[in-house]
């Protein structure tokens, strides 16, 4: 009988977990798509402005599986932190818990602050926060906290669900 731990199985589990927030595409530099605070005081613009301020603070923070701080975030950790800091709302910690809660919204009714979920390798395993005008913010494995376009090459055919947490 072999009492040695199943090291290859452990490595496989870790690698599968790290793929859970995969990302490859980002918007061009802020100089051509920089955000501007909304001038009108709609509830959606107030939500977006608060979330943009949190995004500015953490932009470029590296990806870290399980991370929820300025030393690193995974996708759901960034979402939970952003909602807490910007809106004072507590969200579930993991992507799967977020998918199980919140109100389902048709993609054509997206509003700033809605969570967007993406199907990668056959599973809903990446999430971000929709910010309006085709943009979403998220923590990607390759770029850390960044913003991307829903219609960007990597993302356009992967959007699977939208959830709203009111």
TrEMBL record:
Ranges annotated as spanning the membrane:
none
Q: Which UniProt keywords apply?
A: Hydrolase, Protease, Signal, Thiol protease
Any single Pfam family the record assigns to this protein? NLPC_P60
Which terms does the record give in the GO molecular function aspect? Answer: cysteine-type peptidase activity
- Keyword Metal-binding present in the record's keywords: the answer is no
Kindly give the PROSITE patterns that the UniProt entry links to this protein: NLPC_P60 (PS51935), PROKAR_LIPOPROTEIN (PS51257)
Q: Tell me the superkingdom of the source.
A: Bacteria
Q: Where is the signal peptide?
A: 1-24
Q: Does the keyword tRNA-binding apply?
A: no
Q: Which family does it belong to?
A: Belongs to the peptidase C40 family.
In its UniProt entry, what is this protein called? NlpC/P60 family protein
């Amino acid at each position: 009988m072999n009492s040695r731990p199943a090291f290859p199985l452990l490595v496989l589990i870790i690698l599968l977990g790290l793929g859970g927030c995969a990302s490859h595409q980002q918007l061009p530099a802020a100089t051509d798509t920089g955000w501007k605070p909304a001038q009108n005081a709609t509830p959606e613009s107030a939500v977006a402005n608060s979330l943009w301020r949190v995004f500015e603070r953490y932009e470029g923070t590296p990806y870290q599986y399980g991370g929820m701080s300025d030393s690193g975030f995974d996708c759901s950790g960034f979402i939970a932190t952003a909602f807490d800091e910007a809106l004072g709302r507590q969200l579930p910690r993991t992507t799967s818990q977020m998918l199980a809660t919140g109100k389902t919204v048709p993609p054509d009714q997206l509003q700033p602050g809605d969570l967007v979920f993406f199907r990668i390798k056959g599973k809903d395993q990446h999430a971000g926060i929709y910010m309006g005008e085709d943009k979403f913010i998220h923590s990607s494995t390759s770029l850390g906290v960044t913003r991307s376009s829903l219609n960007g090459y990597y993302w356009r055919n992967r959007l699977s669900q939208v959830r709203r947490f009111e």
